[in-house]
Amino acid sequence: MSLVKAFLRLTGLRTERQRVIVLGSGWAGYTVARQLDSRKYQAVVVSPRSYFAFTPLLASTSVGTLEFRTALEPVRSRRSDVSYFQGWADAVDFKNKTVTIEEAVDDPRMGLAPTGDRHVVDSKEQQPPRRRDDGKKGQLFDLSYDKLIVSVGCYSQTFGTPGVKENALFLKDVGDARKIRNRLLACFEAAALPTTSEEMKRILLNFAIVGGGPTGIEFSAELHDIIKEDLAKVYPELIQYHKVTVYDVATKVLPMFDEKLAQYAMDTFTREGISIKTSHHVQELRKGLPQNVESEREHDCFTLKFKDEGDVGVGMVVWSTGLMQNPFVAQALRDVPHLSEPALKVVKPAVQGSGELRWKIKKDLKSGSVFTDDRLRLKVTADGEGKDKAEGVLTDVYALGDCAILEGTAYPATAQVASQKAEWLAKRLNKDDFERYQFSWKNLGVMAYIGNWKALLQGGGGWGNISGRAAWIIWRGAYLTKSVSLRNKILIPTYWLINWLFGRDINRF
């Protein structure tokens, strides 16, 4: 019997268990899939990446403080009963309970931060076809579900700034971290060449981080650490030319932190030589040198154009300015066919009229994220104008993570919120007691590394604020505790120790 069940699981065939399709392998999707009771549910994860990325550690991996494997957990595991298909969710048929998937095994952008719709519009077709970046249409197949969990996340926000998608580096996935690490070392190697002028050295070693949130600040701190602690010993003649600058359109960085903690971070950066320039609007990022600089060898430098400051030549730009709506949410999660109970539960009847209603997914007008109720079920609203429209929920469809908002709340789009929603949903599904409980987020506080063994900790739920070395110890302890597998719980402190003793690995590969 166990061999039969194993065969059914591997081939994707239905069993007596309910099939729960989970779209996405991020904080929400990976967590809920792992915690579902395998005796009751057949969890099937669909995602273009075959792993879960522990995003708080990506900044460390991008500079060699940790190795890439320490930030990854495979979706397929010998210790897990979770099935997996590598693909992109393409469409959802709520009436027949099927999801159309486009295979993504050969997707060239797997592991990189998505920044926009990856599909090419064919002028001969009325609708954009589902295509990869290389123009080839992936094979489509359908999966049926009993319950659907949408946790596809969001894309990196570029605000339509010219040249950013093509020339900037991001930090949302392990592929991004690898590109940053390689580019950083390439800049130092190019600057070390005897044919490189002093002016070119200053441009190559001018590193710009756009975005003053936790990701931008933590990467700036990690970048400063590797330059001061490791690259200064390898390239001592080049350190005088290097510069790290954080740009932000807002008037201050780390807006989610207490003002004193944010100021402490800014003061620490100033002492360490990291520049912070607020109220700076990026107008363009283009490949090449500023117009006032002449050089026979450009070494793939870039030019940041600011509204007030003009052109600035840089060797690398890391872009971290927030999130934008996932195209799947915009294109596939729109209209809902006529459904009856129990698939659709009306929670707010129409004030007037008794005819057949046309439903659509309810979304936030500003962000485009889908709305859920306090049990994380996808909300729908009757099509039409006016405030008194009928509303309902899809009883077997749930939405978690950055792509969803619990209506009436202002929870931040963080891993903490996503994982808490996933844990709550898995527990409720396992116990089948939805009507007894409502989801509520417990604020556990926020942390940020600011370099030189210092960090910020803003406690939630009445905790106090901590900064400096004590916060750094808590920061490292918290991330080590939150690591999923025993393997990584061992590897992470091991690499911390190795790099402390012998320095970071500065090989390019």
TrEMBL record:
Keyword Plastid: no
Database matches in SUPFAM superfamilies: FAD/NAD(P)-binding domain
Biased composition (Basic and acidic residues): 116-138
Keyword annotations: FAD, Flavoprotein, NAD, Oxidoreductase
Cellular component terms per the entry's GO annotation: mitochondrion
Domain External alternative NADH-ubiquinone oxidoreductase-like C-terminal: 444-505
Family, as annotated: Belongs to the NADH dehydrogenase family.
The protein's name: FAD/NAD(P)-binding domain-containing protein
Source species: Polyplosphaeria fusca
